[in-house]
Amino acid sequence: MSELIFIRDLLIQRNGRDALKINSLEIQRGETLAIVGPNGAGKSTLLLALARLIKPARGQMMFNGSPISKMDDLEYRRKISFVFQDPLLMDMSVANNIALGLKFRGTDKEEIRTRVDRWSKAMGVESLLGRRAGQLSGGEAQRVSLARAFVLDPELLLMDEPFSAVDPPTRAQLLKDLSSLLSQDHRTTIFVTHNLKEAAQVGSRVAVIINGELKQVGTPSRIKEEPVDKSVEEFLMGL
Question: Angle CA(196)–CA(46)–CA(204) in degrees, nearest 5?
């Protein structure tokens, strides 16, 4: 497994204040890294920086050996997919929603059909392809959102608490299905949550961000057994 993301001495500022500091972070190709921390800790800020939606004040962010800041914007965006808390579906059929990004890229119609078929089945929405987005339940809509992200075949998948808006039983099933899919697909994924149990279920490693600072990275069991400082320990006790 080779390194896909390399971060050193990163500082991101928002509204004139320090929002996130990372001394060092490496993410391996094919790895799922779960990011946990309290609300407002800076978890989503990291995703926005990796998506080039926020420019760091300083530091180094590398993607597959190249500085992210030096890469062509369109070329880089085609390497990533972002799944948000809300599905953000268009007012069209499920099939057209899943295919939308591929159509923007000018992908061949037969290739679009093949990919939409594959990922609608993988996410369990193949029976909904003709239904309009407004007719979907919250869980169904988020499954479509996931299919829309995977269908682009991204090198890096960014997920910002994608199941926070659905009910607990639906959330549990989505987490189970996503965890199984990622273990088979080996897609480099960063999954943000504030729930350590969810992080342990989805991620092969966990990164803890508290008060705008990356505090600890390791396996879920190691972090639980050996928190690096009082702030991590108190966060874990409050879960």
Answer: 40
Cα 98 from Cα 117, distance rounded (Å): 10
Count, residues in the chain: 239
Give residues with Cβ within 8 angstroms of 67, minimum separation 6: 60, 61
Q: H/E element holding 127? A: none
| pTM for the structure as a whole | 0.94
pLDDT digits (tens, 9 = 90+) for 126-136: 999 999 999 99
Measure the CA–CA gap between 207 and 36, rounded to whole angstroms: 6
Alpha-carbon span 150 to 83, nearest angstrom: 10
- 175-219 pLDDT, tens digit per residue, is 999 999 999 999 999 999 988 889 999 998 999 999 999 999 999
DSSP 93: B
**Residue 154 per-residue DSSP state:** -
Cβ–Cβ under 8 Å, residues 56 and 10: yes
Beta bridge partners, 62, equal 6, 67
